[in-house]
Specification:
With 64 residues, the chain is α+β, with helices and mostly antiparallel strands. It has one domain (2-52). Helices cover 27% and strands 28% of the residues. It has helices at 29-41, 46-49; strands at 2-6, 10-12, 17-19, 24-27, 50-52. The termini are far apart.
Length: 64
C-alpha cells in the first residue's frame, strides 16, 4: 500500500469523495497508477495533486 498526502483538493471519482488538502490516504500501486493516468488525461500531473509519503525503512522497535 502507498501512503499519499493530498497537496491539492480533488474529487476521487472511484470513492465518490472530495479529497481535501493535507489529507493522508492509502491506496494500492494499481489504484495510484489508475489515478495518475486519469489525471494525465485531464492534463494534470499526479505529483501536483498528491505526494507519496516516504516511510522510514529502519523503524525502531517499540520500547517495552
Amino acid at each position: 500500500m502507498l501512503k499519499l498526502q493530498v497537496k491539492k483538493a480533488f474529487h476521487d471519482w472511484r470513492d465518490n469523495i472530495l479529497r481535501q488538502t493535507g489529507e493522508v490516504i492509502e491506496m494500492t500501486q494499481a489504484r495510484y497508477d489508475e489515478l495518475a493516468q486519469n489525471l494525465a488525461e485531464q492534463g494534470v500531473d499526479a505529483n501536483d495533486i498528491v505526494e507519496i509519503v516516504k516511510e522510514p525503512k529502519n523503524k525502531e522497535a517499540p520500547v517495552k
